[in-house]
Amino acid sequence: MNALEVADLIECFLEGKSLHPAEWNEFVDVSQHDKKVDVYRKRCDELDPLVNRPGDMDPTAVAELRSMVNELRETNI
Q1: Three-class secondary structure of residue 54 per DSSP
Q2: Is this structure's pTM higher than 0.70?
Q3: Which residues contact 76 (CB under 8 A, 6 or more apart)?
Q4: 31, 38 contact by CB (below 8 A)
Q5: Beta carbons within 8 Å of 75's beta carbon, 6+ residues apart
Q6: Where are the alpha helices (DSSP H) in the chain?
Q7: Going by C-beta distance under 8 Å and a sequence separation of 6 or more, which residues neighbour residue 34?
Q8: Gyration radius (Cα) of the chain, Å
Q9: Number of independent structural domains in the chain
């Protein structure tokens, strides 16, 4: 995946609009070929227990994910 695809995936997950139920899990579990993009994947994996759970998502984790979306779109690594 490239940076813009990861940004879109994170945003869709946060909005509950993933393409399929396992899309987020597949992303956080599978290393990316692009090492710069994989850094973001690893950050998402660390935040996963705070956002991919029953009930409300942790607001601090959501804010970090939204920040990552902005970074990915601005830098387009």
Answers
A1: coil
A2: yes
A3: 2, 3, 4
A4: yes
A5: 3
A6: 3-14, 23-29, 35-51, 59-75
A7: 1, 2, 77
A8: 11
A9: 1
Which residue type, as a one-letter code, is found at position 30?
A: V
Distance separating alpha carbons of residues 41 and 35, to the nearest angstrom: 10
Q: Is the dihedral of CA 48, 37, 13, 76 positive or negative?
A: positive
pLDDT attached to residue 21: 80
CB-CB contact of 24 with 9 (8 Å)? yes
Quote the CA–CA distance of 46 and 40 in Å, as a whole number. 10
Token pair for 17: 């609009």
Instruction: Please report how the helices 59-75 and 35-51 are oriented relative to each other, as an axis angle in degrees rounded to 10.
Output: 160
Give the pLDDT confidence of 41-60 residue by residue, as tens digits. Answer: 999 999 999 999 999 999 99
